[in-house]
Design brief:
Helices cover 18% and strands 25% of the residues. The protein is of the alpha+beta class and 438 residues long. Strand 7 and strand 8 form a beta hairpin. Helix 2 packs parallel to helix 5 and helix 5 packs across helix 6.
């Protein structure tokens, strides 16, 4: 690319070997098992300001808990204890049964958790500072964890419960009063006192008492934008001069926020330490912020092995692929992106908002429409595979500023769904959220 040009060169990953002179086809590699186990049955949970009720897994009984922690049983619901004789820092406001029905958790308004029967304690918000009181909980349907939700919509995850986003920090017409998990545990709903419903992870919006649209707007695969959105302002000139300058970053954020607004999303919320993060961490944070705001599950973190794969590809202007999966894990599906641009924000903008016909996406042509918006699909995809096959979303990313990139930086990201024990991560979405992201 000529020095000073404003064209951003993009390419996509291909799972098959191609000649060095040819551009790879646009695909996302995936492997599937012949049979997929059915998702576990969801435990139903109900609650009012007067009583707290939870059904047994077979639907042949239920428990009712009162504010003092007492538990009454009906039908085939077993008695496994109560908090009636325990000192409480706040009233009991919710309960959830275990997957077996042989135990349950009681939840106090201070976030304290009381475990009975085969219910295990995985932690709680008890004794920790809260912006608003805890108002509800939901257990992971298959067991092993639970979520707590606060009146401001904040979500707290314990055990193997994953964080998929929340209304914490977002304006609400009315306070949140409860939550429920999806059947597979890969998402959840929050409900406000006016009947408004907010969806996260794979939780679908089916309507609400206030007739609102889903909180998580935006366009997600397999749907894609109808047209490109060239950046406004056009940050390329400012960023070519200095990709880390304040003017470059400011123009990129303005352009990104304008493109997000066109999809019904609010401003991009980056962590306070964004400018001090490594380029790989910046790519990871921007990708996850765009996912979470659309109700998609985030990548849990950057894996060192995948970072190395991404770095090797960035050095030679190529698409990364997971030839060496994260230690102890098996790759189910993956996608890889490459771009020449000034920095992570610039690359992500073109991958998400200017990737269709007429863009600089080399894979998107009239003869190959399947290549259009492929970078966007890689950034926002894999959730469907995760919903069907389980696993963990992890990512690798890199930047190379060597002499082979026409004056720009070479940036790559490798998005992976993998199963198996998660190895130690280089940087996590939880760290980014703690610093103000999302």
């Amino acid at each position: 690319m000529a020095v000073g040009a404003t064209v951003v060169v993009l390419s996509l990953v291909a799972p098959t070997t191609v000649a060095s002179s040819a551009r790879p086809a646009v695909t996302v590699s995936s492997t599937r098992s012949d049979s997929v186990p059915a998702p576990p049955t969801r435990d139903l949970a109900y609650g009012t300001t007067a009583t707290r009720l939870a059904a047994t897994p077979d639907g042949q009984g239920y428990w009712i808990a009162d504010a003092a922690g007492g538990v009454s049983t009906f039908g085939d619901a077993g008695s496994y204890g109560s908090a009636a004789s325990l000192p409480l820092n706040g009233p009991v406001i919710s309960m959830a049964p275990t997957a077996t029905g042989a135990g349950y958790w009681l939840l106090g308004s201070d976030g304290g958790i009381f475990s009975f029967g085969d219910a295990q304690f995985y932690g709680s918000m008890g004794g920790k500072p809260l912006n608003k009181p805890i108002v509800g909980m939901a257990a992971v349907p298959g067991g092993g964890g639970y979520w707590e939700v606060a009146a401001d919509g904040g979500i707290f995850s314990f055990g193997n419960a994953q964080f998929y986003g929340s209304m914490g920090g977002h304006p609400l017409n009315r306070p949140v009063v409860g939550m429920a998990a999806t059947r597979d545990g890969l998402g959840y709903w929050e409900v406000a006192s006016d009947g408004g419903v907010f969806c996260f992870g794979d939780a679908a919006f089916h309507g609400s008492l206030v007739g609102s649209a889903p909180t998580a707007a935006g366009i997600v695969p397999p749907a894609n934008p109808a047209a490109n959105l060239p950046p406004n302002p056009n940050f390329l000139d400012a960023c070519y001069q200095n990709g880390t300058s304040t003017s470059c970053l400011d123009e990129e954020v303005q352009a990104t926020d304008a493109a997000r607004a066109a999809e019904g999303l609010g401003p991009l919320q980056l962590p306070l330490d964004f400018s001090t993060l490594t380029p790989a961490e910046q790519l990871f944070v921007v990708t996850d912020a765009e996912r979470v705001d659309r109700g998609l599950p985030p990548f849990v973190g950057l894996d060192g092995t995948l970072d190395s794969e991404a770095a090797a590809a960035a050095a030679v202007n190529a698409d990364p692929s997971p030839t060496q999966p994260p230690a102890g894990m098996t790759v189910t599906a993956w996608g890889g992106n490459w771009a020449e641009n000034a920095n992570a924000l610039g690359a992500s903008y073109y991958w998400l908002y200017d990737d269709g016909l007429g863009s600089s996406n080399l894979e998107c042509t009239v003869a190959n429409l399947s290549g259009c918006w492929g970078h966007r699909d890689n950034e926002l995809g894999l959730s469907g595979y995760q919903a069907s096959y389980g696993g963990t979303l992890v990512m690798g990313a890199a930047e190379d500023t060597g002499p082979n990139h026409g004056g720009w930086a070479s940036l790559t990201e490798l998005t992976v769904l993998a199963s198996g024990p998660l190895p130690p991560l280089v940087y996590t979405w939880a760290q980014a959220v703690a610093d103000g992201a999302g």
